[in-house]
Every structure is written in C-alpha cells, then in structure tokens.
Amino acid sequence: MITDVVIVGAGIVGAACARALAMAGVRVTVLERGAAASGTSAKGEGNLLVSDKGPGAELDLAVYAASLWPNLVAELADELGPAFPPLEYERKGGLVVATTDAGAAPLLAFAATQREAGVDARPVSVADALALEPWLNPAITAAVHYPDDAQVQPVIATEALLASARGNGAVVRTGVTVTGATREATGRITGVTTSEGDVRADAVLIAAGPWSGEVAGAMGVHLPVKPRRGMVLVTTRMPHRVFHKVYDGDYFGATQSSDAALQTSSVVESTAAGTVLLGSSREQVGFDERLRVDVIREVAGKALRLFPFLAEASVMRTYGGFRPFMPDHLPVIGEDHRAPGLWHASGHEGAGIGLSLATADLIVAAMLGTTPPLDPAPFGLDRASLAPHLVGETAEPEGEAA
Amino acid sequence: MAARMMPSRHDPIRRRDETAIGISVDGEPIAGVEGQSIAGVVLARGRLAWRTTSAEGRPRGLFCGIGVCFDCIVTVNGERDVRACQRRASDGDVVETQHDELPEAAR
Amino acid sequence: MSPGAASASSAGRTVLVVGAGPAGLAAAKAARERGASVILLDSADATGGQYWRHLPAARPSANERALHHGWSTYTALHAELDRDPGCEIVLGAQVWAIEQFGAAPGATPDAAPGADGERTDAAAAAAPAPVAVHVLVGLPDGTARRGRTFRPDALVLATGAHDRTLPFPGWDLPGVFTAGAAQAFAKGERVALGERVVIAGAGPFLLPVAASVAATGAKVLGVYEASRAAALVRGWLPKPWQLVGAAKKGGELAGYVGSHLRHRIPYVTGRAVVAAHGTDRVEAVTIAEVDADWRSIPGTERRVVADAVCVSHGFTPRLELPIAAGCELTPERFVRIDEGQATSVPGVYAAGEITGIGGVDAALAEGEIAGHVAAGGSTRDADLAAAIGARRTFTGFAARIEAAHGIRPGWTSWLEDDTIVCRCEEVPYGRLRETREATCASGLRSMKLTTRAGLGICQGRVCGRTVEELIGAGGAPGALTVDGSPSTSATTDRRPIASPLRIGELAGRAPGDPGGPVDPHTITHRPSEKGHP
C-alpha cells in the first residue's frame, strides 16, 4: 500500500504527478535541486500535439492527454482564482506543410495513417492552407490541418499544477538535491537521501527529465535517457500574422531519428505576447548550453521557407533546452522492475508538456492499483525495445554529480 | 514647457554649418538638421512621446537615450523596431510610430 | 614606444577590441604599441563611447571641448588610431553573438557521442582565444547589415555600463528619462529634454549630468541624491589620501561643483523622486526625504512642477558579451579579471566599467593594461608601470561609490501595486508580488516566464536586476538560480543574442549579402565544428 511518495523533479511531469497523487489522498513530497519549472519545462514551446506522432502507443497517450487539458485548465482556474496567471491554453490547431514536391506524398500518407488511428488530420489544398495562414509561402506543395493541436504556457502550467498540488497537501521543496536511495534489507527502496537529510517514502518517482539518468544512477540503476538539445528563436512583438502552429514536414523525420548530428525543421507559431517562436533543432551534445550560430542560422533559414515575410522580423532572444531522449522514443512510465519501490516518469523527449497529465494518470493507477485509462505496458521499463539498452550497462551516474 | 534643441546662435560651443533636412512622422513633415538622431529631430520639436504600448496603450518616447531600453522604437522607411535614439535621420525618412497590439486584442 | 619596437611574440597577433569608449580606445592604442594588428569595433557611428559622446561630423562646432572632460585625451587617442593603418576601426558594428569553442564547461566525456576525447582546451596560452565574434555592420537596427565573424588571437571586451533606474510610480511617463539620456542628448544632440528639469537618483554621475543639462539652457531645479550625507561621508572620507591620489577625479568633481554654483543648482542629499505625475507626460514630481535605507519618510513629500525628470540610481555593466564568451563573474557581478585584465577565458580580456564602476581614469588605465597584455605583453613591462600605478589609484573609487551611493533596499517603499516594473511588457509590481505569493516564490526563470517581466524587447536590460531583487526578497532556497546551477549564466544578464537582428540577416539572406564576405580575420564556419561538442 503506497501512502507516501517522493517525487524527484519539479518540472511539469513531476508537478502533474504530484497533483494527481495528492488529490488521490497520497502524501507527496516533491524534491527539486534547483527552482521549480526551471529545466526542460521552461525551455520549450508548450506543445500539446497529436500531429507529430505516428500510430502507436505514444499517439494513444497523446490523444488521451489532449482530452484532459481543457478540463484541467478550467479546474485550475477555479481552484487558483484570478490572481493566478492564466495558462494560455489555446487549441489553435496545427498546419503541417510540405515544402518540396517529393515531400508532399509522404506527408499525406502519414496523415492517412493518423486518421485511421482516430486523429483529426485534414488534408487541405494550398488555397485552403493560405486561407488558414495568409502569410504562408504560396510555394508549398501539400498541407494537413490538425485542429486538435494545442498549446499551453508550460511554466505557468507547471506552477499551477504545483500550486494545486500544494493546495491538496503536497509539500514542494526546492533547493534540495537527491543524492541516493535508502533501502531495506531486501533491497526495496524506502526513500531518498538528500542534501538536506533523508526522506522516507513507499515509492520514489523520478521525474527529472533529461537529468533522470543521473538521479537513477545515484540510486544505483541505469536509465538510458539522454539530453537532446533544442534551440528556439523568439522574435520581438509584431503584428499578428501567424495563426496556427505551422510546421514543415521534416519534423517527423527529426522526431524519429536518433542521429546525433544537427537536425532542424521548421516550427513557427505566435505567442499570446505577440512574439513569434521559431523552432527547432535537435542535437545530442550532452548538457552543453553554449550558443551555436550555425544551429540558429539553420532554424532561421528554414522558418523563412515557411514565412518569407519574417526576413525583416527581429530575433531578440534564443533559448535552448534539453529534451529527455529515450533510445526507443517512448517515455518510461511505471515501476522499475529491477528496483522495487523506484518508479519512473521521464523520457518524454519533446512531448512532456502535453503528455504530463496522461503520465500522471498512469502513475496514479499503477501506484494505487486502480484501472489505468490505457494500457501501460508499452511504457514499462521492461518493454522489449528497451532491453538492449538496459543489459550490459553498468549503473553509473551520467552527467555531473547532482 | 518642452524639450527643444539649443539654438546654434546661443550655443556656447559655437555650432555652425548645420544642414537642414526633413523627415515625416506619421505623415507630418518635421524639419531637422543633418546628424540628428530621429529621436533628436522629434524631441527638438517638443514632442516627447511617439510609441504606444501594447497592453495599456500608454505613450512612450525616449527613456535611456543610449540604445538600451528600446522604448523609442519606430518604423523607418518600412523597417520596424528601429531605435530612434540610435538611427540618424536622413533627409526624406518616412517614420511611422508603432503600436503593436497583442494578439488577443487583434482578434 | 612605436609599433616597430614590438617583440617578435606579438608580430602578426590580432587583437579585437569591442567598445570604443575610454577603455577600448586605450586598449587599442596599447595593443598597437605592442605591435599587434588591432580591430576596434563600436556599435555607434563614432568613437568615444558614452563618456565622450559628441556631435557628429555633420554638425561642426568651434568649441566642443567645453562640453567634455579630458577632450584632448580623446581627440589624441582617436586621431592616432584613425591614421594608423594597423588599426581598423569598424563603426556601426553591432556584436550580436559570441560563440565559445573548446570543451563544454561541466561536460562529461560520455555526454557527447563521437567526441573521442579530442579536446584542445589545454593548448598553450598562445593559442587564439576560443571564441568567434559575430558582428553586423551597418545602420543601427537596419535590415541589410553586413555580417562579419572574427576569430582574433585576443579579444578585449570594453562594453561599458548603462544607467540603472529604479521604478517609482509614474516613471513610465514621457518626460522621465535616465540621467544618461539627458547627458547623451545634451552632448550628442544639443537637445534639452525639458525647461524645468529635476535630476535625481544616486551617485557622482548626477553632477556632470546636471552640468550638461544646464549647459543646454534648461533650468535644473535641483540634484536630489538619495544617499544621506552620513553615507557620503562614510563612503568618501575614510581614506582621504585616496581622493588626493585620485587627483583628476577630484578635480573633475570640483569642476562640476563650480558649474553648479555658477548655475545656482541646489544639491540635496537624502532626497528621492518617489513619484512622477501627469496624464500623458510629466507635469510634476514628488520629492521626499528618505532614510538611510532609502525608505521614504512620510510627511516629507513635496510636489515640484517640472517637465523633465532625469533619474539614475547607479550603473549596470553590460555583461552579455563577457557572459557569452564564458567569462566568470565576481559575486558583485562584474567580470573577474587578474592583474593583467585577463578574464577566466584564455585570450579574453576585460577593461572599464564591466570590471567595476570606476570612472574614466580607471577605464583608461585598465584599457591600456588589457591591450598591452592582449598583444603579448606582460604586466611587468616597464612601459606599463604608469598605467598599473594609475589603476591602483583609482581602484578604490568603485568601492567608495558603492559605499556612498549604493542602492539601499528601502526603495521598494516607493512602489505602488500598479507601478510598472518591466517597461516593455508593462508588468506592474502588484502582479509580480501576487505571482510570487501564488507560486511560493519560485525561481527567476519561472517568475519571468510566468509574469513576462524581463521578456520584452529590451530583454531585461532595464528591469532585470530590479526584478531579481523584488522576487529574491524572501525567496525560497535556490530562488535565484537556474537549473540549480550557480554558474554565471544564472542571471538576467545572460543574453546569447546580444542585440536584436533580422531573421533575414541571421539566415544570411539579407539583400546585398548573399554569402557573407571573407576577409583576413573573418571566417564564417570552422571545419572542426562538425560533430562538435
């Protein structure tokens, strides 16, 4: 019987799990070595996407998650009151376009497979695409509209989930570094050791995003999650001319590839502040935060292919984050079969904001023995596709010591 | 009562040989001299504010004067976000003031 | 010493100097005297920096020196560099990014597949600075500036500082300016920002501002210094011999006092402008007496009719380029330097206000040392003795300014809930406070992203440190860190894009700049970047 849970990490996944567990009556302590919502959750666009996933377990999770967000936004608004900033949830829809003749057919074929899996993916003519996005490059060759793609302001969402978790009894401690696990004689994990003393728990849930491997390592188990860096450019405020999330079709190729070399594909969207975000890149360079001009040049160049008018817009900021990348491109959600008492909720790569709510529901069901909203097996650490990445690896901390 | 340029005939540093130029601000012609910044031309005519803020619609003009605060941005010959305190006025410049509305308001 | 007398070690060495104010000019001259090739960049279209900001060539005058201190020092430095073929002065040159190469700080060997441990960071000190400096040259905020990228042997950063103005009710009204704006427009435009001008804030800089404003024919109603006389005495007088040693600074201040007497400008301590009034522009200000912590004392408020208010409470060093280059900062948030002005990054030097707010004489001395050492010289070289002596004399100046005029925490008593803190995004103090309470004083990044404070077009240059102080008060453990890391990047001063640029310029598609130029010191890509870390 699980009555006390320690969650390592106060990003959106940890926050969503903390709220869901606290509301289910569990005593929750969230431990965060830095500040809340300061890692990967603060470095993305806040995507809640169904458009970028092919049929399979992750798409099922995304479709389920998409169904949860509208209610959550309303609940949090009621619960936290008008003094809390709004989550900027907007179901603005996505428009995925092909920019080459060769790219048109694969895009339409991909959308057809998604439709079979229940996604609202509507092929639109170039003229209709231009009606949706009047400033789009008219030279595009194909377009698919995804009305269910949405976005949320991820930092506000994380803070709101944490505030709600606190309101339901959870304790959130920042500036506390988890250094290891405490165990009983059987080896079962009974809590964590931290920079501020031990904390006892029936279950320890690692939700530290790309740093989860490091935390798991400190507890003596290997978790093959690696950081995959992404860079986003932010323009100055400008007249509102981009109305959906607009991607070029290369996005799919990038998401599904493990290649460490630089990949970029264009994602352009407006924010509630009137700025435009240009994404994004994917590189595996460890936790190196330093600016790479060749990366942002490429991001800028690809954005211009979608929206030529942006050439005279000004970039005022760039930021980078580290997506938690799993070798088989699926998050790990559930108990660690190698270390009873240890649980995982990480490896969501670029989809963690959207998937956080669905992840939390799976964790609650598994910890409390209730019926899960969908089959959790594909996300288990013991799944076949992860086996090659778990065997033969010694448990060693990744990255610098926490 | 207002900002103004020190008249060259009274200036103890004895300015001389200034060349007259003209720019327009939102269609209104304004005279200046070569070498003034756009902010300098506008301020010298006693006008303190030109931008309008996005959220509250408040007037803004020069604040830091050295290119740090971006409060004074204008559109010059179609180019947006030009700091009026940093860009020298050129004869014939077409300056438009900026009021960038937030997307919610635009909808 | 002439360029020809340089030792062999500096022959062919290229020193890139960013910023052509006093420190940068002195650095360029010293590097040339050591025989290095020098490229001197400034974003303005003239050298001189803010200190020697002056009328452009299109507006000649017979006696501009009357507006400046040390004008002959400036004209001599400029003339020498301008006629020197070994020094390329690039004006209208906006550095928008500095890239670091070499091993990632804190990177682990297994974090980067394909790295093979091939690292060159331990290479000899003679190796080029591990940075690339990306520059756009052309009209300020233009759309078709020419891109240049430099890989110098040594880089001297002399980017200076800008005014820091604390918020108070009405500070966002037109007619409220920084003191620096008043100075810049007096010296560089001959524009008076008003007829009845109040100058307020803290620091010795208010005095030359008052003198400059008075010299545009405006009436300066008074200079209101927030620090009380006791603090000024503590700051300035414990080591009076330092004032004697800093004879030029003393002389400069004496000159301003003389100017004030001539213009009959009152100089009042322990007073602050705590509000500005007006609907669409300033019509009056409230001046109040403040205690030693700068808390306004109820009942002392006095309303003064004014049409311009020039307010500065100190300076913020321009740190985005040193941070981008990877330079360590001190706990006081200046660039950490050694006695040769070297930063923590090999081949990167810093001089002037980014190492401490020390005034023009310190900047000149630091610049000379930085340029000399960057060009391959040593601090033990005899021709550097005078500069090292001068730097020693003026080093105490920064500490004395801070002791006497440093910002005191009571200023927050001036704020109302609707006082704008972030001017760009119009974030009022009340929203910051509410959000801090609702999120239990979360981290800086989270506060910024939640409230939008500091996320506007100035990128927190104006409000960044203010926001840090406002949310840091009573903050949770780690409240001011990012990612739990105590690194230099954990501040609002970190801006990897150091100045806005057009997307077309970034993509290399600006009209007239199809591929980017190649010149001797310019590269656009490094072959070794492939598969980097």
TrEMBL record, chain A:
<dbReference type="InterPro" id="IPR006076">
    <property type="entry name" value="FAD-dep_OxRdtase"/>
</dbReference>
<protein>
    <submittedName>
        <fullName>FAD-dependent oxidoreductase</fullName>
    </submittedName>
</protein>
<dbReference type="Pfam" id="PF01266">
    <property type="entry name" value="DAO"/>
</dbReference>
<keyword id="KW-0560">Oxidoreductase</keyword>
<dbReference type="InterPro" id="IPR036188">
    <property type="entry name" value="FAD/NAD-bd_sf"/>
</dbReference>
<feature type="domain" description="FAD dependent oxidoreductase">
    <location>
        <begin position="4"/>
        <end position="364"/>
    </location>
</feature>
From TrEMBL, chain B:
<protein>
    <submittedName>
        <fullName>(2Fe-2S)-binding protein</fullName>
    </submittedName>
</protein>
<dbReference type="Pfam" id="PF13510">
    <property type="entry name" value="Fer2_4"/>
</dbReference>
<feature type="region of interest" description="Disordered">
    <location>
        <begin position="87"/>
        <end position="107"/>
    </location>
</feature>
<keyword id="KW-0560">Oxidoreductase</keyword>
<dbReference type="InterPro" id="IPR036010">
    <property type="entry name" value="2Fe-2S_ferredoxin-like_sf"/>
</dbReference>
<dbReference type="InterPro" id="IPR042204">
    <property type="entry name" value="2Fe-2S-bd_N"/>
</dbReference>
TrEMBL record, chain C:
<keyword id="KW-0560">Oxidoreductase</keyword>
<protein>
    <submittedName>
        <fullName>FAD/NAD(P)-binding oxidoreductase</fullName>
    </submittedName>
</protein>
<dbReference type="Pfam" id="PF07992">
    <property type="entry name" value="Pyr_redox_2"/>
</dbReference>
<dbReference type="InterPro" id="IPR023753">
    <property type="entry name" value="FAD/NAD-binding_dom"/>
</dbReference>
<feature type="domain" description="FAD/NAD(P)-binding">
    <location>
        <begin position="14"/>
        <end position="367"/>
    </location>
</feature>
<dbReference type="InterPro" id="IPR017224">
    <property type="entry name" value="Opine_Oxase_asu/HCN_bsu"/>
</dbReference>
<dbReference type="InterPro" id="IPR036188">
    <property type="entry name" value="FAD/NAD-bd_sf"/>
</dbReference>
<feature type="region of interest" description="Disordered">
    <location>
        <begin position="474"/>
        <end position="533"/>
    </location>
</feature>
<dbReference type="InterPro" id="IPR051691">
    <property type="entry name" value="Metab_Enz_Cyan_OpOx_G3PDH"/>
</dbReference>
<dbReference type="InterPro" id="IPR041854">
    <property type="entry name" value="BFD-like_2Fe2S-bd_dom_sf"/>
</dbReference>
